[in-house]
C-alpha cells in the first residue's frame, strides 16, 4: 500500500503489505509530531486496532526470545501459531478492542537474580500473549510521536541508539574538560514511577481517551506473584512489558528536558562561546547522558557544582515518585574513574608521556560474570557433550566480545582467552582421563604449533583474535528511523 494512503481507511481482512502500511503510518505521525511540538493526537485508537498494526505487533512478539514464556493464562505465541492461528487470534483480539471489552490480565511475576552476584533479585512481569500484542501495537503508534520530543542525550530503548553511543558521548565531553561526574542511580525506578505524573506526560501528546484508558489499564493491571497472590500496582510500570521502556522514557524525559534546557537555542549554554564565557565567570556547564534509568551528569565546574546539581535533580525526580539511591549515587572525579553500562571510564596519563586522555576499559564486574559463566560450563565433573558446550561457550564469548571490543581491552581479551583455554583443557583431561602428553599429541600439529580445541567440527572461539576498534562518536549524526523505508 502506498505511503500516502489514508491512515484510517478500511483494510482487507488479510492485510497486504502490513509492514509498508505501518511504516507509512509511523513516518506520518513522527513528521506531524516534529512539525508541531504542541500537537495532541486524536483518533489513534483506530491505528492501534488496524489489522496491519496488530499483525506487525504479533510478529514482533512471536519473534521475541520470550515468545515461549506464558502469562497467567498459560498461552504462548507458539500455541497461537500452531493451535489457534494468528489470523483468528488477531481477529478476535481486534473485535474485543473495538467493542471496549478488552481488559489486561495481571502480569505473572518472575524473580531473576541481579547481575553481579549480590544475591538480590529483579522482579519481572510477564504479560499474557494478548496483552503483549496490544502493548506492541500501542508502542508502534506512540513511539514515533514521543520520539519527536525525546532529547538526544537519552540512549536506552530507543531505535538506532546504542549503549556505545552513550559511552562515546561521555568520552567526548570528558575529553573536553567535563571531569566532575554525578554517577547516579534511581532507586527502584520501574517500580516507583507515579502513575498520575506519568499519565499527565502521556496526555501532553495523546488526546484519544480510548488510548489513554488502554495505557492506564496496563499500568493498573496488577501482578500475580510467584505465591499466586494478586497484588495491585499502585505505582510503577512492571519490567518485562513491551510498553514499559517507552513509558519509563516518557517519564524520565522530564529530567532530560530540565538539564538540557540551557543547551536549547537562546539558552545559557547554547553555543561554545556562551559556555566559555560561563566558565570564565566561574559558572559551570553540564551535560546529562542517560540510558533508561541509568544516567551520569558531567560538569566542567567543581565538586560543589555537582552537589548542587544533585539536589536540583532530586527535586525534578520527586514529582515523578522517584528518588536517587543514597548508597549508589556518588560524586566522582574522572581521574578516579567510574563504571557505566559495563565499561570503566577514567581520565589518566598515557604511559610513557605527560599527556592525559580519557580511556574506556572493561569494568571488573562483566569480566567476573563472564568467568563465572565459563566456569559453570566447564566444571571438571561435567558430563555434557563437548560439542554442545563449545557451541554455548562460543555464543557467550562472541556476544560479550562484540559488546566490549570498542574498549581498551587487548590485554583483557588475551587473558580471558588463556583462561577459557585452560578451563576447557582441564575439563577434557578429567572427562577423557588424559595426561598432559595426550593433550599435546591431540592439540599440536606436525610443526609443534598449538591448535584450537575442537569437538565434532566446532572450534573454541578465540577471544584474542577479536579486532579491537574505537567506537566513533556519532553525536547528532544518529539517523532517524522514521525516514527509512519499511522500517516497521
From TrEMBL:
<dbReference type="Pfam" id="PF00078">
    <property type="entry name" value="RVT_1"/>
</dbReference>
<dbReference type="InterPro" id="IPR013597">
    <property type="entry name" value="Mat_intron_G2"/>
</dbReference>
<dbReference type="InterPro" id="IPR030931">
    <property type="entry name" value="Group_II_RT_mat"/>
</dbReference>
<keyword id="KW-0808">Transferase</keyword>
<dbReference type="Pfam" id="PF08388">
    <property type="entry name" value="GIIM"/>
</dbReference>
<protein>
    <submittedName>
        <fullName>Group II intron reverse transcriptase/maturase</fullName>
    </submittedName>
</protein>
<dbReference type="InterPro" id="IPR000477">
    <property type="entry name" value="RT_dom"/>
</dbReference>
<keyword id="KW-0695">RNA-directed DNA polymerase</keyword>
<keyword id="KW-0548">Nucleotidyltransferase</keyword>
<feature type="region of interest" description="Disordered">
    <location>
        <begin position="1"/>
        <end position="23"/>
    </location>
</feature>
<dbReference type="InterPro" id="IPR043502">
    <property type="entry name" value="DNA/RNA_pol_sf"/>
</dbReference>
<feature type="domain" description="Reverse transcriptase">
    <location>
        <begin position="93"/>
        <end position="345"/>
    </location>
</feature>
<dbReference type="InterPro" id="IPR051083">
    <property type="entry name" value="GrpII_Intron_Splice-Mob/Def"/>
</dbReference>
<dbReference type="GO" id="GO:0003964">
    <property type="term" value="F:RNA-directed DNA polymerase activity"/>
</dbReference>
Amino acid at each position: 500500500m502506498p505511503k500516502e494512503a489514508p491512515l484510517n481507511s478500511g483494510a482487507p481482512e488479510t492485510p497486504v503489505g502490513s509492514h509498508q502500511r505501518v511504516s507509512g503510518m509511523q513516518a506520518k505521525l513522527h513528521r506531524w509530531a516534529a512539525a508541531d511540538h504542541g500537537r495532541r493526537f486524536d483518533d489513534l485508537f483506530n491505528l492501534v486496532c488496524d489489522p496491519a498494526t496488530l499483525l506487525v505487533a504479533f510478529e514482533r512478539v512471536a519473534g521475541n526470545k520470550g515468545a515461549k514464556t506464558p502469562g497467567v493464562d498459560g498461552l504462548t505465541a507458539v500455541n497461537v501459531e500452531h493451535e489457534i492461528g494468528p489470523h483468528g487470534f488477531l481477529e478476535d483480539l481486534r473485535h474485543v478492542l473495538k467493542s471496549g471489552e478488552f481488559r489486561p490480565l495481571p502480569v505473572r511475576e518472575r524473580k531473576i537474580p541481579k547481575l553481579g552476584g549480590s544475591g538480590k533479585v529483579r522482579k519481572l512481569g510477564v504479560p499474557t500473549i494478548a496483552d503483549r500484542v496490544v502493548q506492541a501495537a500501542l508502542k508502534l503508534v506512540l513511539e514515533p510521536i514521543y520520539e519527536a520530543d525525546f532529547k538526544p542525550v537519552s540512549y536506552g530503548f530507543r531505535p538506532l541508539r546504542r549503549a556505545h553511543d552513550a559511552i562515546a558521548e561521555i568520552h567526548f565531553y570528558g575529553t573536553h574538560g567535563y571531569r566532575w561526574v554525578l554517577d547516579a542511580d534511581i532507586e527502584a525506578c520501574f517500580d516507583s514511577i507515579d502513575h498520575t505524573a506519568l499519565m499527565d506526560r502521556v496526555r501532553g501528546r495523546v488526546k484519544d481517551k480510548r488510548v489513554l484508558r488502554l495505557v492506564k489499564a496496563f499500568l493498573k493491571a496488577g501482578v500475580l506473584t510467584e505465591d499466586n497472590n494478586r497484588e495491585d500496582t499502585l505505582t510503577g510500570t512492571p519490567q518485562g512489558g513491551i510498553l514499559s521502556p517507552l513509558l519509563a522514557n516518557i517519564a524520565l524525559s522530564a529530567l532530560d528536558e530540565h538539564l538540557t534546557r540551557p543547551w536549547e537555542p537562546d539558552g545559557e549554554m547554547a553555543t561554545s562561546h556562551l559556555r566559555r564565557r560561563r566558565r570564565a565567570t566561574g559558572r559551570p556547564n553540564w551535560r546529562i547522558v542517560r540510558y533508561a534509568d541509568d544516567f551520569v551528569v558531567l560538569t566542567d565546574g567543581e565538586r560543589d557544582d555537582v552537589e548542587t546539581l544533585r539536589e536540583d535533580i532530586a527535586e525534578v525526580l520527586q514529582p515523578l515518585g522517584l528518588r536517587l539511591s543514597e548508597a549508589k549515587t556518588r560524586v566522582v572525579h574522572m581521574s578516579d574513574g567510574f563504571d557505566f553500562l559495563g565499561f570503566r571510564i577514567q581520565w589518566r596519563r598515557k604511559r610513557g608521556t605527560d599527556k592525559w586522555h580519557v580511556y574506556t576499559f572493561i569494568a571488573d564486574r562483566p569480566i567476573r560474570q563472564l568467568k563465572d559463566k565459563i566456569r559453570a560450563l566447564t566444571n571438571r565433573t561435567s558430563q555434557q557433550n563437548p560439542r554442545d558446550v563449545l557451541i554455548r561457550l562460543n555464543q557467550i564469548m562472541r556476544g560479550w566480545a562484540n559488546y566490549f571490543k570498542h574498549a581498551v581491552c587487548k590485554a583483557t581479551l588475551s587473558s580471558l582467552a588463556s583462561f577459557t583455554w585452560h578451563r576447557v583443557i582441564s575439563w577434557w583431561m578429567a572427562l577423557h582421563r588424559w595426561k598432559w602428553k595426550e593433550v599435546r599429541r591431540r592439540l599440536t600439529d606436525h610443526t609443534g604449533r598449538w591448535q584450537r580445541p575442537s569437538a565434532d567440527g566446532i572450534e573454541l572461539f578465540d577471544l584474542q583474535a577479536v579486532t579491537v576498534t574505537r567506537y566513533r562518536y556519532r553525536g547528532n549524526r544518529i539517523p532517524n528511523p522514521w525516514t527509512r523505508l519499511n522500517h516497521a
